[in-house]
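User: I've been going back and forth on whether these two constructs are worth ordering. Before I decide, could you fold them both?

Assistant: Sure. I'll take them in the order you sent them. The first construct and its structure tokens:
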Amino acid sequence: MSLLRAAGALALSACAAPAVSGTGTAISGDAVRIGFITDLSGPYASVDGPAGAAAIEMAVADRGGTVAGRRVEVLAGDHENHPELAAAMARRWLTEEGVDVLISGVNTDTSLAMAEVARETRKPFLVVSAGGAEHTNEKCSPYTVQWAYDTTALSKVAGAAVTAAGGRSWYILTGDYPFGHELENETAAAVEAAGGTVLGTERHAHGATDFSAAIGRAQRSGAQVLGLASGHSTLVAAVRDANRLDPAKSMRIAGLLAFIDEVHELGLEQAQGMYHPDSWYWDCDEATRAWSQRFFARFDRMASLLHAGDYSAAFQYLAAVEAAGTDDGDGVMARLRGTTFNDVSLQNGRIRGYGLMEHDMYLLQVKSPAQSRGPWDYDTIVGTFRGDAAWRPKSRSKCASWTG
């Protein structure tokens, strides 16, 4: 665990919400403390990890390093992908070390464990990098906000849009763990709602590396779309096998959770044409490009949606503390729920009554090498989705305790 301190002011992005002055100074302790718990050293460290902590530091710096007259501190901890460790760290930070808000990194199981601690201690819990929809369904909490994406949004955007674009028959390869199951089920529902069919599904072990047999079965099914309901190294391995076994690209590939990191690792020659849903793209507009160049100067890479989401969650939390004049959990949550969000990561954002941050989602398609203008110019935005077109409508929420 490390303690990171951010100081000094940097220029705000053109999209960033302006600071709002509060009327009170009911701040507990001598600082406002942001706790960030994620995978800092394991298999998911590259898509979030230390760079996610740095993105939070960028947000603190963009707020001037202080809020409501108090300095801001960031604590970054490694949960090592163990829910028990994540929960114990969260409890110690929230009850003994004066942490005022938790930002959750990758891994749904660790995030759900921390959510219970945040509920018990009545502290805001901003879920950026864990996409399991349970956060706002059966296990919803008045202190949890799912900030950047969830399985429903990923599946609805990819399933509905790719089907509408002519990919009407699907074969889905699924990571055999709860997050993968959610992606498969939600995608199948979206495909069928759009008039398509799912010709077959099969599940594979977490971390599988050989998809030859499964892709052969997908080809023989006649499916037009190969849906990949997994991520990271598993998705990369599946795309590589698909290129080897289907060089003519007779099946379109839809990576249901594909970050810019996977596209970079694959390279455009192999990744070209792949569809993938996202809540952020670095080359969206002047504001995202300017922020991304700052991030690139520090890490020699472009940010994933998780890094941009970490920044957004921290920036908007601090704005809410400033506006509310307090770091009391209930006061901050009330302020967050009454705000419309537009920044480098979120466009047209609002928190729905069951804890979901509803905002614009995008369907991206990977460019061919000839279409790319240079390094990291990987994607074209082929569709923008808002409201119920991307997110779960209230009628489908299983959260019994919230309304609105």
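The second construct, handled the same way:
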Amino acid sequence: MEFSTFGKRYARRTGARELMDDLGAAMASEADVMMLGGGNPAHIPEIQALLADRLRALSNDARELRRMLGDYASPAGELQFRQSLATLLRSTYGWPLDADNIALTSGSQSGFFQLFNLLAGQFDDGSTRRILFPLTPEYAGYNDLGISNDMFVARQPSIEQLGGRLFKYHVDFDNLVIDNSIAALCVSRPCNPTGNVLTDAEMQGLGELARAHGVPLIVDSAYGLPFPQIVFRDCEPYWDDNVILTMSLSKLGLPAVRNGIVIARPEIIDALAGMNAVISLAVGSVGAVLMRELVDSGDVIDISRKVIRPYYESRMRAALESVHSSLKGRNYFVHRPEGAFFLWLWLPDLPISSAELYQRLKARDVIVLPGEHFFPGLGEDWPHKRQCLRLSYAQDAAAVERGIAALGEELHALGA
């Protein structure tokens, strides 16, 4: 069958497809798969119990059950949830928000598809504008979201070498050029894949640059503040009326409900609502109704701080210890893990590409993500792209330890 140009673009093999195929196969497999590759959050017992309690309570409330399952929400998403979230953000951070500043999307991935194509691409005057990633590596899922070619451009980072086999990426402001071809800046904080948390000073600098050039700054906070707070260093959330802040319910433990959150100026929210209406009539309300009471009370922030963050921080420390133990004697560096639930390995002496290493590990039932996918918009041939791996430590702790040990064995065999 002959597909359209649009159809061919989204039916082809992509990094996102590879990631999700591996994740789905691993989750469904009866084999002892060591899943270090996906973005699925951990099944934290306290969170699972909390969600079960909420479902039981809602099943006995006919009105709430109808809102969750039986009625369409508005195109911008379930109104009571948006009102509760606006109130929470006003009271916690002093941000001047109401429900008109918030839209829900069918997951963050869909939300970014809408945002990127709303702001960038072809314009009526024949010009083309692009999304600028001021810092790479960045989220692999951004790669294929543009409906036009060359929608993204990126800048290499500066690299700070730290002690203890650690390093950190920083925005290279000296080489950050913003011209009339740029429609918006975009960063993830914490960063998927590296666990990097941009400093408050870096966020301030990016915000000032974006405003000076009349473009918005998009901040992907799927792992960050105010929830789920998978952040292991002190930092402040960043929002003003030139910022488009995106959040998610996925990393709270609800990836299957597919609810993304966008916080922005009302005209952007209104445009997203229009897109929702055309694409899906309305956004699903399951996650919004399930979580509204926790948002309304502010408990979602307490749970994030007291349960979710400590859980992942403990898992991070164990995974980092495994890396140092299993890769002893190898030439490796780990990006300082400051948030999210990934370790980002840099292997300068790797004699094969990280994509080939991924295949070797996959043959041993160890699933990782090769670094090549995580440089959207970076056209230049930077060898660093082929020397990195992303490891998730969110799944079974023993499997993560065995997977890292297998990685060490492969590197030893390769002489890397």
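Notes on the second construct follow. The chain has two domains: 5-47+303-414, 71-297. Residues 5-47+303-414 form a domain with the Aspartate Aminotransferase, domain 1 fold (CATH 3.90.1150.10).
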